[in-house]
TrEMBL record:
This protein's GO CC annotations: actin filament; cytoplasm; myosin complex
Protein name, per record: Myosin motor domain-containing protein
Subcellular localization(s) per the UniProt record: Cytoplasm
GO biological process, one term: intracellular signal transduction
InterPro entries given in the database record: Kinesin_motor_dom_sf, Myo9, Myosin_head_motor_dom-like, P-loop_NTPase, RA_dom, Ubiquitin-like_domsf
GO MF terms held by the record: actin filament binding; ATP binding; GTPase activator activity; microfilament motor activity
Length: 669
């Protein structure tokens, strides 16, 4: 028995030979819903003709543990099937014992047929179909499965996916299996097909149906709605979000309050997605860092400097054995990105500055270091192997090449009133380069988000008279496990997912079962994995993993090796923490989704991940105001100051124009 919000229940009714497509249908009902109402609902959904005996009725069938004898009872029109379900035992003695409702044509007036002995062959041929999953059948709604368990669920999803059906319902929930290819089921014909259609058996499961259900639920109940999209990394969440937004936009534009807000939202998607796709470049290994940049190379055609940078980017990438994705028109994708930027409000000049900084970020991945020639035998200082790349970065960011070269290979410190120059070793130089790329990219992305939000607010200001409701679409990033490549980034992402799972556990399991207990509902308590202790392992104070990491980052002389030793000594007895069997620089956390091994290498450096002051100083001296603003202060403060500055510029411009007009009038007089 399933329970939805507002004390609604899912009643499953088997229809047998009355339908060629379904063995059972699920109906949402309350304790007050009558048998007659459920019959009417199913008859309408199946479009059944009038029965030979004057209609249809529900029957309650109870099978014994032997499987040879059944007890059958007709439900009266005013009886409550939900009330009967609550009386059924939660634990059955065997697989042959069952409690079912099924739809049939009306029979005689006798309610109970006691000791109703059925022929064994009839039991195998008829009721066996209700109790076990047929091998040659796939269900569009998992609630229709006669026997719902992990095996039948996975088999049904596999059968549907093999048949080309990537969507499957679980009541009002939609499961999407990523096909990693485009399916032609999202064109305007399908948009129109799924408008004004409730979730149900009339049409195949589709993400458009979820959007339509949320939209009409908002209109009917006059309440804000929310659609949550969850799944592992690479499962297709962002693409699903785009399909939802397109369908919601098509629906909202039909109303009387359609505006440019919808188009701005749609245009913002490709902008944020296009820039955000650079993120994996900035959080994996150095080899992948450079390899992933290929996707930007052929499309950087904003200026001569960007064009030359694209050639340098492609060079080492091709040598590393990477390749361009098939069936991807990068020139078209880039033109689509620029068009979306224009729709959001990015002027040509803003685009030029954005691409200049983004190109500099990507080019930083091509900066290589080599040991510097020195007279000292033990000198580990490094120099830039390819200064021509630094020259391009300097040109893009409008900074001096020699000062940027110096900042990438050395740092300055003051001691006893004197300035000391300390040369970087290879790991320190790489960390300085990567920190510069990440911080520049982070500041750039924050600036883009602020620009998009400002464009939405500007459009929204024109609709002050209309106070409507909204539909929120939450695209949750997925759980990640990259085998031997899990580092600080995956640790942070999985920590966030652990919190989301905790929220899910609290609201779906704990709070719901407490509600059942208050209402006196009889049910079998559902055991679930409580991940509170896993969260405490990660974030607990003062000995959680994050707290220990911060301590080790502030402790003089600490290394990643001492960090791992601290983890192991403090948490070796923790049930959610494991030490690898073989000696390696790693630790294991037992997440709700499974065990993940994290490499401790560079974890301290990534936790700090601060741009060196020498590099900040170089960028603050850029001749491009945009670069100075990105690194100079908090992006929100910079954005607000830009608005204030624009206001005063406009004010003084109007003031000056008025003064000139007054002077002109005086001359004429």
């Amino acid at each position: 028995m399933s329970v939805t919000e507002n004390n609604r229940y899912i009643v499953q009714v088997f229809v047998g030979a009355l339908s060629q497509h379904y063995e059972a249908l699920s109906v949402e009902a309350s304790k007050q819903t009558t048998s007659e109402e459920i019959v009417s609902c199913i008859v309408d959904r199946l479009s059944l003709p009038e029965g030979s005996c004057g209609g249809y009725e529900l029957a309650e069938v109870i099978g014994d543990s032997v499987g040879q004898e059944c007890k059958e009872r007709r439900l009266g029109p005013s009886e409550s099937p939900v009330a009967l379900m609550l009386l059924w035992p939660k634990i059955l003695h065997s697989q042959q014992e069952f409690y079912r409702f099924y739809l049939r044509e009306k029979l005689n007036d006798c309610l109970w047929t006691d000791s109703f002995t059925m022929d064994p062959q009839l039991i195998r041929d008829y009721f066996h179909r209700f109790m076990y999953q047929p091998k040659d059948r796939e269900y569009p709604d998992l609630c229709q499965l006669p026997d719902l368990n992990e095996q039948t669920l996975l088999e049904n999803l596999r059968a549907r996916f093999t048949a080309g059906h990537i969507y499957t319902y679980v009541g009002s929930i939609l499961i999407a299996v990523n096909p990693f290819k485009f399916h032609p089921i999202y064109n305007p014909k399908y948009v129109k097909l799924y408008q004004n259609r409730r979730l149900g058996p009339e049409l195949p499961p589709h993400i458009f149906a979820v959007a339509d259900a949320a939209y009409h639920c908002m209109l009917k109940e006059r309440r804000n709605q929310c659609i949550v999209i969850s799944g592992e990394s690479g499962s297709g969440k962002t693409e699903s979000t785009n399909f939802l937004l397109h369908h919601l936009t098509a629906l909202s534009q039909k109303g009387s309050h359609g505006s440019g807000v919808e188009q701005t939202i749609l245009s913002a998607g490709p902008v944020l997605e296009g820039i955000y796709s650079v993120r994996p470049v900035l959080e994996v290994s150095d080899a992948l860092y450079r390899a992933s940049i290929l996707s930007v190379g052929p499309v950087l055609e904003v200026s001569d400097a960007l064009y030359r940078s694209s050639i340098l980017i492609v060079g080492p990438v091709l040598e590393s054995g990477c390749y361009v994705l098939d069936n991807v028109d990068e020139k078209y994708e880039f033109s689509r990105l620029k068009q979306s930027m224009e729709m959001v409000g990015f002027t040509t000049e803003k685009q030029r500055r954005l691409f200049a900084v983004l190109s500099a970020v990507l080019l930083l991945g091509n900066v290589e270091f080599q040991p510097r020639k020195s007279a000292y035998h033990h000198d580990e200082a490094v120099a830039v192997r390819n200064p021509e790349v630094v020259a391009l970065i300097s040109e893009l960011l409008r900074v001096k090449q020699e000062t940027l070269l110096a900042a990438l290979t050395a740092k300055r410190a003051r001691a006893s009133g004197e300035t000391l120059v300390i040369n970087y070793r290879l790991p320190e130089a790489i960390a300085a380069r990567d920190a510069m790329a990440k911080c520049l990219y982070g500041a750039l992305f924050d600036w883009i988000v602020l620009q998009v939000n400002h464009a939405l607010l500007s459009k929204k200001d024109t609709l002050r008279d209309h106070q409507g409701h909204s539909i929120g679409v939450l695209d949750i990033f997925g759980f990640e496990d990259f085998g031997l490549c899990n580092s600080f980034e995956q640790f942070c992402i999985n920590y966030a997912n652990e919190h989301l799972q905790y929220y899910f556990n609290q609201h779906v399991f704990k709070y719901e079962q407490e509600e059942y207990r208050k209402e006196g509902i009889r049910w079998t308590n559902i055991d679930f994995m409580d991940n509170t202790q896993c969260l405490h392992l990660i974030e607990g104070k003062p000995s959680g993993l994050l707290c220990l990491l911060d301590d080790q980052c502030n402790f003089p002389g600490a290394t990643n090796e001492t960090l791992l030793q601290k983890f192991n000594s403090v948490h070796k007895e923790n049930n959610f923490y494991e030490i690898p069997q073989r000696r390696e620089a790693a630790f294991i956390v037992r997440h709700y989704a499974g065990k993940v091994k994290y490499q401790v290498t560079e974890m301290r450096e990534k936790n700090l991940d601060l741009m060196r002051q020498d590099i900040v100083g170089v960028l603050k001296n850029s001749s491009m105001a945009f670069v100075r603003e990105l690194v100079g202060a908090d992006p929100v403060a910079v954005f607000r100051w830009a608005i204030v500055r624009a206001f005063f510029r406009g004010y003084f411009a109007f003031h000056e124009a008025g003064r000139r007009q007054r002077l002109g009038r005086g001359e004429h007089n």
